[in-house]
Model the fold of this input.
Amino acid sequence: MSTYKPVFERVVSHSDVTHTVKPSAAPKAPSSPAGALAQDVVCLRKAEPIDRLLPGCIKWLASLPEQVRPSALANQYPRIANVLALDWCRHEACQRYFDDVLIEHRRGNRQGFPLDVHRELETLRDYYDTHHPLA
Done:
């Protein structure tokens, strides 16, 4: 056996394979209303999306011709601009994301994008379709 074996490599033993997890007892009820509220808040907490343009997105925006650069989208919805920048070179992912943001798939009273943002997305999608044809 070499002493230069990678650190991340792990030998799996029989006990690792046959180990089972037993369900634990029911969780204890909090002793105070404040404890119950704190427990509920922890359960509901989600990671917040990045609501600013990432450096890669800024470079991507600068690389686009001015007539198709989605500046209103970048200002109002930086999270969506970041995803488009990441997916730009992956044809299927980019097409799917354009479909997700431009076509209403959910039921309900959703407003959609402001007109200027919607126009920019349509223009950007047309530009993408002409410059990144399906192989």
